[in-house]
Structure to design on (1100 residues):
């Protein structure tokens, strides 16, 4: 296979973060607002975890993308400032982490436009990247995004190579992801959350890094893109932060092209035959 | 025990695949059609994963059986062509991955006849093998299959040695399987799928290979048949494909007779005292 | 602590088996009778698994107790004969694996009397041991058992040392157990079973043996009784049978007193100050 | 970071225990009272497990805090006496392990006052520490506690450093915890409990200690407080008790300041700039 990554590298690594804060709880059930402990666990992400992650990214000189629901961005402006100060990209992730397929198209448009407006105000430029909250979209999502200048999204799971969505003249690049490279399912426990307990077995760091490394190496075999989807309330915990360090080190060891969403988007669009 | 496998081998290994694509989602709940990401994860199987698996099978010179819902076969003709070009067998797996016990007998007959007709057209010969979608059947399934020329099925879990079903003069061979040698329960995550979240803890490759190897070795002790039941949307992922390579290598190391469904069926029927 | 086991041994090991067959499925929901594959998985226990277990017990010269629902005993008389021929004890485990707390007291009496009658006929002597199906009882169970000559039960989890239940002059010895030394939760998968999917993550053999060994060694520290609760449809699988061999070998290595239920019952009742 | 722990130590370790006994079952569903085995498993905690834990704490000279629902304290006075005799602290944990957010404010006040009264009678002094049952509180809980002289609680998850709650002049210190350092989710199995089965995969001791150690070490990097939340019915089991020994030894090895709740509370309040 002819590698398509800068410098002849055979794999790209995209270390991305979804800074969901308490929004994921409020979006699924407003009653969670009355659960101070459940909310506090989620608040750990923007209060503490994001800073731990930024430290690791700075230490290893990695530029990343943080997809931030704008309700969280407004509630924790310091976290957003720190992300921008670190040279990272801000991406769309809904306003209140709304699951797009549960909205009407009009509601979905309002969420996208509102979150574009807020991120633009906070960062001084319009966001070009997006990841769908809860990793699900509606049949209208891609068109709504592309019509409003969004250049890439990172949610689909049917490829390990970037590709353009078919959108009748509109252009939206996909930077695919997959559950195996998402920290949530290996650790997230929120047993009192409404509407239903949220319980995953907490796997060891070795377990998680073993799977992420295997996915990274397997994607290298086909010249693709490895997308890590981490959450500061999970990977920002003291016991877990080392998994981020280890997978970044591994990507460096195998000479992956480490880049954030906008860099990958720019590169892919610069190729002679994008696709 | 007197070994009953060719060349005096003491164990047989049947590496089989269920190419479910999006059909498993549509069969359990039509609302899944409106979930592009959930569907894209399932589409990875026939779009990408199946080719990764075919590469490994070609590399290790293994002939296999792919059980394919005919809705998937029609939607992804390229995948079917690649399977046939690799010298593999096509087997029945419903049309839309319908769970037989939830159909009326008339509906079940229609599904079987339709899927036989489609596979016959695509491959130029009638299928002789079958595995039940969701690993469940109705009390009528075996008779319906045998009456229509199906020679073997591979779904029961009450033996590790092939055996003939009791069907009043009809002949249907069972190539038994078991959950432990199925990749799904060690990896499948589809949290947004209707009607209910589908979440399994993702185990490491070492974990999975350890169990498959133990089952293979244990079955060798009794001269039986090891049936691997893999899904391209699971084992075809970059992080997982190595498990297939490793279990095939292990089967070769212990000198297993590696064969696909029709070869095992032919061999078993050629024995002096089939049973 | 003053060891209370024969020969001054500091721990006893009771390797017991619940031969549930299909009864556990029929007891929870009669619709399971219409699921041939789900039933076949359960049938593996009395059809195949029990013989694998008997082989290991014979090989390692262990005398054991098999708690058998009498519906299973009548359906698989060959399994019962093989258990008795191996010198093992038969114990009560309901007729159709009925959960005692869901029965009226009259129904519970009928089940106990029926299963005593059937086991007596099959083995030539009345059973003296019992384990409650599903590891739950009603407030009346212990009295019902003791009034009918049952001398011990093995279901409680509040001790690691045998003890007598308080029953107003009746005598019933408890041989306690615990979930950690039960094979079911580490392996049982029956996703199509009514009324609800039954899914446990399948752990590796090393995982399981590590926990059983730790429990055995921890119980030795307090001079107690280690009770293994295995199911032929689980531990009798080819991949799992080695866990039984390994834990028995470990018990021998640490010089445990290995005995079945009736031997432990007889020993405990022979102590100067039973308690 | 300027370490804030005595002797210039860079991390504190708080080994705490929730002695829930059967109260957790009765609080969620009174029908559990009719399940003798399910209740017996829970009773193992105050009957046996707590003594095993006290042995380890004595052996390693650790002073700890036991949060005890007062219904359990009254039912098992011997356990409470042993805790006090070991020099440990008693903390509030509801009367019947009531989940505060499901109570009216009046009911919550009654529970707090009743449990303060009972613990005061049993120990001769009013309790100053609290942990919320089920790790959830109501919006009123902190104020209710602080108004009644409680000085610290240990339930929030949004920090790894102690902090004071904002309570309009009232003073309540938080000693934060997190699910990863709670033994329950790695082991608790109670499949027959009402209103729903309670099933967690039982992880190995190495698995659990690996995560606890990583959390402890990670918290040391930020000079924080590691809070272990163990349950005698879980960690007091023979197979599990070694995890407690190992994590305490590890804390000693890295020179953590090992203290109980009241000691940490006193130290933090003595700092020049508490916060």
């Amino acid at each position: 296979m002819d590698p398509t990554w800068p410098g002849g590298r055979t794999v790209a690594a995209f270390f991305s973060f979804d800074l969901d804060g308490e929004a994921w709880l409020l979006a699924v059930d407003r009653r969670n607002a009355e659960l101070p402990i459940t909310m506090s666990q989620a608040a750990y992400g923007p209060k503490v975890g994001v800073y731990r992650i930024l430290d690791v990214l700075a230490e290893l000189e990695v530029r990343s993308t943080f997809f931030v629901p704008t309700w969280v961005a407004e509630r924790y402006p310091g976290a957003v400032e720190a992300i921008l100060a670190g040279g990272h990209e801000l991406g769309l992730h809904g306003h209140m982490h709304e699951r797009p397929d549960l909205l009407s198209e009009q509601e979905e448009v309002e969420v996208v436009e509102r979150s574009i407006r807020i991120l633009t105000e906070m960062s001084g430029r319009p966001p070009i990247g997006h990841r769908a909250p809860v990793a699900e979209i509606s049949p209208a999502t891609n068109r709504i995004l592309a019509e409003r200048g969004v250049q890439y999204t990172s949610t689909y799971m049917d490829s390990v190579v970037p590709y353009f969505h078919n959108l009748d003249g509109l252009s939206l690049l996909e930077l695919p992801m997959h559950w195996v490279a998402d920290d949530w399912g290996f650790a997230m426990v929120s047993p009192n959350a409404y509407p239903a307990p949220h319980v995953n077995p907490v796997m060891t760091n070795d377990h998680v890094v073993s799977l992420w490394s295997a996915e990274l190496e397997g994607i290298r075999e086909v010249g693709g893109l490895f997308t890590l989807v981490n959450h500061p309330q999970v990977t920002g915990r003291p016991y877990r932060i080392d998994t981020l360090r280890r997978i970044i080190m591994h990507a460096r060891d195998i000479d992956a092209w480490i880049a954030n969403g906008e860099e990958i988007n720019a590169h892919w669009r610069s190729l002679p035959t994008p696709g």
